[in-house]
Amino acid sequence: MFRIWNANRAFIIGFKKNFTPKGLTVMLITIVLGIFWSFVGLVPEFLYLTALFLFFSGIFVGMLNVVVITLVQLYSPPEATGRVMSLQILGSTGIQPITFLVVGWLLEIISPTLLFLCSGIILVTVAGISLLFKDIRNTNSKIAPENIEDNYNFDNRKETRENQR
Question: Which pTM value belongs to this model?
Answer without folding.
Answer: 0.69
